[in-house]
What we know:
The chain is α/β, with parallel strands linked by helices.
Amino acid sequence: MKRLLILGAGTGGTIIANKMRKVLKDDWNITIIDKSKLHYYQPGQIFIPFKLYGYNSEDGCVKPSGQYIPDGVNFVNDEITAVNPNEHRVTTKGGSYEYDWLVIALGCRIAPEEIPGMEEGYGKNVFYFYTMKSALDMQKALEQFDGGKLVLNIAEYPIKCPVAPIEYVCLADYYFTQRGIRDKVEISVVTGMQGVFTKPIAGDMMGSMLGERGIKVIPNFNLAEVDSSKGVIKSYDGQEVQFDFLAAIPPNLGAKVFDGHDMADGNCYILTDPKTLKSAKYDNVFVLGDSTNVTTSKAGSVAHFEAEIVYENLLAEIEGKEPHPDFDGHSNCFIETGYNKAHLIDFNYTQQPVPGKLPYPLVGPFSLLKETRMNHWGKMFFRWYYWNMLLKDRFSKSMELFLPTRMSYRGKDKHYLEK
Ligand SMILES: Cc1cc2nc3c(=O)[nH]c(=O)nc-3n(C[C@H](O)[C@H](O)[C@H](O)COP(=O)(O)OP(=O)(O)OC[C@H]3O[C@@H](n4cnc5c(N)ncnc54)[C@H](O)[C@@H]3O)c2cc1C
């Protein structure tokens, strides 16, 4: 019996389990391990603090993981404590598992403990939304917030869903407008980068949009400390920003089990070949999703596109062929901006987001780098698609048009592409 072991039953791990079970015969044992019995639809956590668009609670954003693991795959609910690629062995709290091929999809975690004062302030005037529980805590706190300085701070990069800060402040603008207290709330984004988004064309457009909404951007601020008693964040170079309500995005790090591991960088992200998605250090190991150190977004869309590449390359290796250096870093994301509208971006390692239409030139129906109602409805529909199609790898071939694994240039504005 040959053994495929998958670590993590989140977005990436669940898709790959479904894909591999369809093609590997009965002489393959497939096992997937996750410490959680629950699967979270994380994009919903951006709406929960504001109770927007029906996202009032975790209903519809969490399901039993087992519901998405296919028949014929063993689901082990346990915490992984060690990965030994020399012995082809993974250890959990309760057992030990050997493999012929390993797929790592352990995501990333928030680490507020890395910033002095952040945990101490939690629940008083410091809140997060990167976990379901913290998003629900923030919802209660926002209901009590009647005005003052609301500061969204990104402690450091990379973070998963790099557009989440933009979405958060736009939704805050919409939320306080709906509550009739927008004029009492000063909203700002404090970031260590030069702007709100790393890619220049999208960054400029998003920056202008925030300016028009009266949302201030404070760049080049590298967070050193949170002083919740004084309501102030401090940077390494001595800048200070006052807050009444801090929406903090703590440092994001890879899975703790890779702390100090030679497979990973100093932030626990696995050293990964950016094109084949093989471990850069060990054979018979593939990596996908937020666990990798590849230089595209940490996003569910990326985990999905990477799953297609890992599937192709894993099968190639099993058949004794070379893996294809085919992953182009494709990422796309709706950016919800409130008022029933959203932007959409589509890019890869070499092509930054540009305006245009997706998937069809001229007709779309989705618009790139433009706020539209259709984009908003795309984002709203996506949750249904995630639970019913994406995780179970249903109709993946017919969805290639809308969500191609490799980025398409069709519909993208040539004027911008030539820049
Ligand atoms: C607020 C927010 C909004 C987002 N919005 C979007 C969006 O609009 N679009 C988009 O594309 N993406 C979005 N994302 C990002 C997206 O959800 C993630 O990028 C995606 O889920 C990554 O998939 P993954 O498989 O790499 O990791 P995950 O889905 O996080 O799965 C990792 C799994 O590993 C398990 N695990 C970790 N360590 C261990 C261990 N030691 N032992 C056992 N199990 C372990 C975890 O329990 C988890 O189930 C958002 C994320 C957040 C937080």
